[in-house]
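Sequence in, structure out. First:
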Amino acid sequence: MNVVLLEPEIPANTGNIGRTCVATGTRLHLIEPLGFKLNEKEIKRAGLDYWKDLDVTVYDNYEDFLKRNPNAKIYMATTKAVQTYTEVDYEPDCFIMFGKESAGIPEEILLENKETAVRIPMIGEIRSLNLSNSVAIVLYEALRQNNFSGMKRTGQLHHHTWDESL
């Protein structure tokens, strides 16, 4: 799986998303301009000590991203989409793109990708969910559809076992 952030503005969101990517074995793609420097402490704080383990690629702009990822299947997460994120089938190597916090993905890009634009349902006129929450929601649906491939599906207690009688 691949998560793409188009011109992210808030370092804490990108740090949180980076941590989610490390936990899920997902590659992170950052498209400039970024609203911060990658060495800012807010990113490292949000990503904790996981940032060093992140598979991250930075691109000069959207065109550079497209050029370096030819034939990529890209799902565009946006509040403006007609279909919900659960109505599509995510391929194991797909890209899920999210726009910057203040404006989302430009409408010109969305129009070029109408069939792969997806939204998270919300009530009322709320503008959007937090970016890192949105990434987690859509990414985990894509991972679920792919049977959480390569992921640990069971947890372990620290001081007991699940086999103990209560």
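Second:
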Amino acid sequence: MTEQTTYYERMGGEATFHKLVHEFYRGVADDPELRAMYPEEDLGPAEVRLRMFLEQYWGGPTTYSQQRGHPRLRMRHMPFVITPAQRDRWLLHMMNAVDTLDLEPALENLLRDYLTRAAYSLVNAPEDRPDVTGLSQA
């Protein structure tokens, strides 16, 4: 990777991240357990926020910070109950979304590793709990 090339660019830029997040939310929409965590009727705003976050993380536009401030991923998710089961549902849909991308193996592995580590870091409850609250504002 040259100094001028970001992972965002190497992964395909906006088109790749749009597809990744759109495919992820298609899975969420059809998953009653995970969908229940998003109280907004329209998943569109959550899709935009996640796409902006991921684009910024990988070296793309800083729109997320401009609109929402510092990402503070863990802090933004603390108000929501996130169990290992919910993490696993999230990862299932996210990895299925990664499967739709045509990334070179090294970039795909890097993306999968980051998403897995991020998902594991957000778990804040040891078991499934009935008092799950929404994630849509993260």
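Remark: The helical segments are 7-11, 13-29, 32-35, 44-57, 63-68, 73-77, 84-99, 105-122.
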